[in-house]
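[audit] Reproducing an earlier prediction to check determinism. Same input, same settings, fresh worker. If the tokens differ from the archived copy the diff job will pick it up downstream; this log only records the rerun itself.
[audit] input (481 residues):
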Amino acid sequence: MTAQRKFFTLNSAVASDLSDRLQSDVRLAPEGVSVDVGSVVMDSRRVVSDSLFACVSGEKFDGHNFAADALNSGAVALLVDRELDVDVPQLIVADVRASLGEVASMISGRPSAEIDVIGVTGTNGKTTVAQLLASVFTADGRKSAVIGTLEGDMTTPEAPVLQRKLRDLADDGVSVVVMEVSSHSLVQQRVRGTSFAAGVFTNLGHDHLDIHGTQEDYFRAKALLFTSYGLQRMILNDDDVHGRLLGDLTSDVREVYRFSMSEVESLDMNINGTTFVLGGAPFSVPIPGRPNIENALAVIACARSFGISDDVIAQGLASVDQVPGRMQVLSGENFDAIVDFAHTPEALDALVRTCRELAPNRRLVVIFGCGGGRDKQKRPQMAAIAGDLADIVVVTSDNPRFEDPAAIIDEVCAGFTDATMAEWSVEADRATAIADAIARAQDGDVIIVAGKGHERYQEVAACKTEFDDVAHIRAAMEASR
């Protein structure tokens, strides 16, 4: 049986309420009009009957130019920043994108008011923290869900998609949603209209400077989750200078919980996972490496802030399977392969150091590339890191997008010097790079395939073709038996 569609009545009272929430002028034209809308969309190709079409002005297109297409497809109202010469109700705001989150939340019935939404932000660790945290809440008997990198094309969905997802989850009885919150989504205000029960900060590294320009602006973007959403509970990495700075910037927050590696005792690590003691309580995490201890500490601090007992937290952490593409271990007959999403200098450094620590007497082979259309400054930095820490480095293609793959590789390889410790080479074809490394694997090798992690595609120009690092590794392992 199909669920009955719910409608939201858009009228002058709603415009007045929205004006108060946005603290800017909002009006509905013509005056006195009232219209029922069933959804809000920002892509004219996705309009259905009874939609409110949001005319977002972007870098390449102005949504106002597609209003006629949206109306022809069944839209019954428009969200605009200037009144158009069309005969439908128009909600007129100062900035469509900045208003879209609040509008989408209202139309969806403000679902985040019915759920504990926990926002997780930071350069590295968001996905693992989110998955671990959801497992802990599940162990505590609460129905939980994750919105993030593993669940969709975008780390944080656009506002209309996000609010519909939250509504569906609330209607399905979910009481806790752990959401990865990207810096881009905060700048674009995609999460506006969402009430957060808590915010978690993992760390800040070198990434997305193609978007934000400077590291300072990147931090300001991340900080928005903690400074602009009325958080009353936040969990901060005290080992990261930016985590400490966040604590200073948000001194009025009622509950601040900090975590630090300095609190860990009885640490025991191997390639299959880690055990440690924190505050007298034992914990086990089936994901290897020091970065994942930090991730677990963030989860423990957050769960404790919700009153969950250490026994339940330990149960939730221990029950997690490997997180796809996050220190994911695939064991061959006489060697191990590790797939990880590490695509920043800090993440690659932590990944290779972790593998060196877990396998101190084994040969490390690192295969990585850098994505096109992204921050170019990190490319030679990542080569320098791999070249200093690994035994063998193979530079290959990642997602070149609209850049020349060979040019990207050249920029990466500029990071190798006469002082580079590792033996390095280039194999532009990623499948060949993986297959060759596994075919040549020696007893005890650890083969690290970094950059794409969970992704199951490779993006070249405007085309996404199927490509899964894990599948290629398994196929190469089978072929080498």
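[audit] rerun output stored. Observation attached for the diff report: The first helix runs from residue 12 to 22.
[audit] end
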